[in-house]
Design a protein that fits this description.
It is built from 9 helices and 12 strands. The protein is an alpha/beta fold. The protein is globular and about 50 Å long. It starts with a strand and ends in a 17-residue tail after the last strand.
Length: about 290
């Protein structure tokens, strides 16, 4: 593999002999493979999304709900052939799609896996579920292989990105990455069940006391892409890890905070979007990563 510069960290790690900033080497390490029922309705539907949760992450969010997984501390190693077999099994189970969760640090290896899997009969859509901390040149290697991009847009301000995710350049990187995603897959399409077959769905997790920032994120997305992308406004922030000791992030989002952002989205004209109802911040919504 040589030195790794797949992502904006440009860490120059030799992942064949160690780990990168992402916490993993160059072999696929996966925390769980499962039929996932709790994505947006157009992703999970009634049949579920075939989720593959990769170990490791190129971000550094202090509120990460999957801390052990994101640091590469849990997971089972898979060969390319084994991963292809798992994808085909998920398709046989009736999953709506293959959902690659936090895949950025394996993007180069996924080109080969997805190409071979499609040659062997994988026909359901491929979802690239990412923080959007992705290098455009890396995303371009995936063109034609990804059907649905499912990125976050966490921040537009560098201060918040630095403080909460150790990624001061995140805002600029993420905006360029989402532009590339939209360019690649174009307008969204759905099947007759309302399941997305192609397109971009951008997620934004609202953090406590950052309501004005969230409004700016929603406004940016709508002004930039209009109704050509879907926006998912998320209320599921759960105080985890060291965020439990942070003066601001130590509490969940309030209903009033969430409603204010949703009302703003409606006010500026957002129509293609998803909102969450109920206690989605409950820890029971966080899957166990048992390498199964």
């Amino acid at each position: 593999m040589g030195v790794c510069n797949l992502c904006p960290r440009q860490c120059n790690a030799d992942r064949s002999n160690g780990v990168g900033y992402c916490g993993v080497g160059d072999t696929f390490k996966i925390g769980r493979i499962m039929k996932h029922m709790w994505e947006e309705p157009c992703i999970s539907g009634d049949n579920g999304s075939g989720a593959i949760f990769f170990s490791g992450c190129n971000m550094g969010c202090i509120y990460c709900q999957n801390d052990k997984l994101s640091k590469g501390l849990v997971g089972k190693e898979y060969s390319e052939e084994e991963l292809i077999e798992e994808m085909l099994k998920l398709q046989e189970m009736g999953c709506n799609n293959i959902n690659l969760v936090t895949p950025s640090h394996y993007a180069d290896k996924l080109v080969s896996v997805l190409t071979k899997a499609k040659e062997r009969g994988l026909t359901i859509p491929i979802v690239y579920n990412t923080s959007a901390y992705d290098a455009v040149e890396t995303l371009r290697k995936l063109e034609g292989l990804i059907d649905i991009y499912l990125p976050d847009l966490k921040y537009l301000d560098a201060e918040g990105a630095k403080k909460y995710s150790n990624a001061i350049n995140y805002p600029g990187i993420a905006r360029l990455a989402i532009d590339e995603m939209v360019r690649q897959v174009g307008p969204f399409t759905f099947d007759n069940r309302g399941i997305m077959k192609k397109g971009v769905l951008v997620r934004h997790l609202i953090l406590p006391e950052r309501i004005e920032e969230s409004k700016k994120v929603i406004e940016y997305l709508y002004n930039r892409y209009g109704d050509s992308v879907y926006i998912s406004i998320m209320n599921q922030y759960t105080p985890c890890g060291i965020a439990k000791n942070d003066e601001i992030l130590k509490r969940p989002l309030t209903e009033d905070e969430y409603d204010e952002v949703v009302d703003y989205a409606v006010f500026i004209g957002v129509e293609n979007g998803f909102i969450q109802e109920g206690e989605t911040s409950d820890e029971s919504f966080i899957p166990e990563f048992t390498s199964e």
